[in-house]
Write a structure and sequence with these properties.
76% helix, single chain, 12 helices
């Protein structure tokens, strides 16, 4: 009975995208710790990032559910059945995030306004005119939010930081494309990028992406074992496992969501 309740709790945790929110927090802290793996202390910024991330995910699903062609994924069904509660949660997250904004340094406020502008552009333009471009646009916004705050607050940035940010961007693209790939394999009527591009093409992009990440990790970070090097190996490992999941798709069709989202928690091993 107890294990069944735990299973149900984790199911709601996943359907509400809270697992993605916590994974976002982990990835952002990993970049806050650059370049020397120093202790993380900016809990204010990370709390605001978590709330903004969850608010965007909730809004994205709620808006998807009012489109002419509603996605039939389990997460969209969950958001549809609990839309009123989630609307209250969304408004609360936005209000608390705005309050925290008054206590943030000026450069964070400017950065937040820029990212918010792209988010508004996504919801008002991209999601309406080019809905199948979601798998490209959202990873860019997500990566900008995750690495942008620590980069904005950093006193100096070197090439390794930018390379790690680019690796994360490729990982997030893989994450997004992999979900679309599996969803389309389960239901060919799914409204995602696999409908515009063939599944084989999406699969090739995922494999090309892991090749780039492995090259960056080996060529630029393979000679030392400092914190940036360790982070590059973790990102390359996430990329590689994601690609392997797609290659052996038939074995992971029932639990791919847990594995793909769970991979984003791997930076914890170097904290």
């Amino acid at each position: 009975m107890f294990l069944e309740k735990i299973k149900i709790l984790f199911k709601y945790f996943n359907l509400s995208s809270l697992n993605v929110v916590f994974a976002t927090v982990v990835c952002s802290i990993a970049f806050f710790k650059l370049p020397e793996g120093s202790e993380f202390t900016d809990y204010k910024s990370i709390a605001q990032l978590a709330m903004a991330c969850w608010a965007i995910y909730i809004l994205d699903r709620l808006l998807d559910n009012i489109k002419d062609e509603v996605p039939e994924t389990e997460r969209h069904i969950f958001h549809k059945n609990n839309q009123y509660t989630l609307q209250i949660v969304f408004v609360s997250l936005v209000l608390v995030s705005l309050i925290i904004l008054f206590f943030q340094p000026r450069q964070i406020i400017y950065f937040g306004l820029i990212v918010s502008g792209f988010v508004v552009f996504y919801f008002l333009v991209v999601s309406r005119r080019w809905p199948l471009s979601k798998e490209w646009f959202m990873p860019a916004i997500y990566t900008a939010a995750v690495v942008g705050v620590p980069f904005t607050l950093s006193s100096s940035l070197n090439l390794s930081s930018w390379l790690l940010g680019f690796m994360l961007f490729l990982v997030v693209i893989q994450n997004s494309l992999s979900f679309s790939y599996f969803e389309y394999a389960e239901n060919p009527k799914s409204q995602n990028i696999c409908k515009k591009m063939s599944s084989n093409t999406v699969r090739k992009i995922i494999n090309y992406t892991v090749s780039i990440n492995l090259f960056i990790a080996i060529y630029f970070f393979g000679s030392e074992l400092y914190y940036p090097n360790k982070l590059s190996f973790v990102l390359a490992a996430i990329s590689l496992v994601t690609s392997l999941l797609v290659i052996f798709e038939k074995k992971f069709r029932t639990n791919y969501r847990w594995i793909i989202d769970g991979l984003l928690f791997l930076p914890l091993i170097i904290f």
